[in-house]
Amino acid sequence: MVEACAVDLSTVNTVLKKEVDESGSSPAIKLALAKSEDAEIRVEESADELASVTSSLAEGIQERKSLSDELAKTYAALMESRRQARKARSDALHDPLTGLPNFTLFKDRLDVALSQARRHEWRVAVMFIDLDRFKHINDTHGHDVGDACLQIIGERLETITRAEDTACRRSGDEFQFLMTEAGSLPVIEALALKLSKSMQTRCEVRALNLTIKPSIGIAVYPDDGHSAQELLEKADAAMYAAKHKGEGPLFFSQLEKP
Questions:
Q1: Residue of 102, 129, 191, 257 with fewest CB within 10 Å of its CB?
Q2: Are 174 and 239 in contact (CB under 8 A)?
């Protein structure tokens, strides 16, 4: 619009000059011509300034776009970094084969469960689970088949696990189970039997139907101990006794005392 005004003023001034040349030096016309020429100069200067401002704005817009692009890249990199950090933390606390919590996470949750149990006077049950003759599966069918069985067992444990409980793979063919707010001993035993039954369901791997029998030992807070270490050791002892007897889940309190 400013450029158009400058063109219009230039045209008007050309006409005025022609009239001055043809009609002589009329003071009114000369004054109008001088004002018009002055206006033309100011408009042209404004046009130049506007062009400079427009150029600066264009550069600013481009710079802002580049900055926005950089910020978007930085944000994406930050989100990816956080995702990787979360994954690294999760990997450090979970078993890579089954995806179950590992012993580090299990122990932490056991400590928390015991702290809550002391405050609310709850029972806490710790189960030590070992798969009988699992080495025979690895030796006979190979570790790939054994690993597939462990993954199936892990999935079954996870399915039965309540939100407040924790199933973990300790190592090899050893698993552990934490039952918070455990309730009475019959309730604990019922869950242990449910776990045992689920784990003994045939595992279908590569056209093989494999039956895995678990031995389960149970220690209960506060009956069998007050610390995580005590309960883990007594659940382990009960598991070995259950394996020796070849029966179902066994409480530490059921062991024959010397």
A1: 257
A2: no
- What number of other Cβ atoms are within 10 A of residue 77's Cβ? 10
For residue 197, give the nearest of 167, 156, 158 by alpha carbon.
156
Helix (H, G, I), strand (E, B) or coil at 215: strand
CA separation for the pair 231, 238 (Å, rounded): 10
Q: What is the CATH number of domain 103-254?
A: 3.30.70.270
- Residue pair 126/236 in contact (Cβ under 8 Å)? The answer is no
- Residue 248 to residues 135, 167, 244, 245, Cα–Cα distance (Å): 20, 19, 11, 9
Q: What's the rounded Cα separation, in Å, for the pair 105 and 82?
A: 20
Find the largest Cα–Cα distance for the chain.
Answer: 138
Distance (Å, whole) CA 250 – CA 102 = 23
80-137 tens-digit pLDDT: 888 888 877 877 899 999 999 999 999 999 999 999 999 999 999 999 999 999 999 9
Query: pTM of the prediction?
Result: 0.69
Q: How far apart are CA 131 and CA 142, in angstroms?
A: 16
Cα dihedral sign for 140, 248, 126, 177?
A: positive
Domain regions of the chain by residue span? 2-90, 103-254
Sign of the Cα pseudo-torsion (145, 148, 152, 153, in order): positive
221, 203 in Cβ contact below 8 A? no
Closest to 250 (Cα-Cα) out of 170, 131, 237, 133:
237
Residue type, 232: L
Which residue pairs from 42-49 have beta carbons closer than 8 angstroms and sit at least 24 positions apart in sequence?
43/2, 43/5, 43/6, 43/9, 44/6, 46/2, 47/2, 47/3, 47/6
